[in-house]
Amino acid sequence: MTITIRPTQEEDCDWVTGILIDNWASNIVVTRGISYEADRLPGLIAEIGGKPVGLLTYSIKKSELEIITMNALEKGKGVGTALIDEVEKIAKRNECHRIWLITTNDNIDAIRFYQRRGFEIAKVHRYAIEESRKLKPQLPSVGKYGIPIRDEIEMERNLEE
After folding, report:
1. Residue 79, SS3 per DSSP
2. Where would I find the beta strands (DSSP E) of 16-118?
3. How far apart are CA 91 and CA 99, in angstroms?
4. Which pTM does this prediction carry?
5. Which end of the chain is least crowded, N or C, by CB within 10 Å?
6. Residue 152's domain spans which residues?
7. Residue 75 phi/psi, 5° resolution?
8. SS3 helix, strand, coil % of the chain, rounded to 5?
């Protein structure tokens, strides 16, 4: 099965917003105190046989590409890896020196996924979720595996190596 990656287009807007609401409880995503309308950001859609199976949204600032959201709707098929590979190409074309993202301390699956793809934990922003909840009150207090959500984990992959 072949995974194809393409940029989001205007006609994808309803699907993108639906994925964000289903997976992030809103189209609003907060990272490091910045609120993003993720459905208005540049994005990538992964498809298998023409069916959308993954979404990644990102922002480029100051020669850094931040992954804002990533969702692989079909697990274990390489969807997330294909999205990461494509966003790395975009980062290099835009002369970015690093790709980075924020996840939360409860998201052990994401931490594992990104580390296996060359990302490192760069910083732990302790209790940062308290500030994020001021911008996005619907953030839950308990997350995956029953772990209290408190901290933002900043992960990065240096592209200058």
Report:
1. helix
2. 28-31, 34-37, 43-48, 51-61, 64-72, 98-104
3. 7
4. 0.91
5. C
6. 3-158
7. -80, 150
8. 35, 40, 30
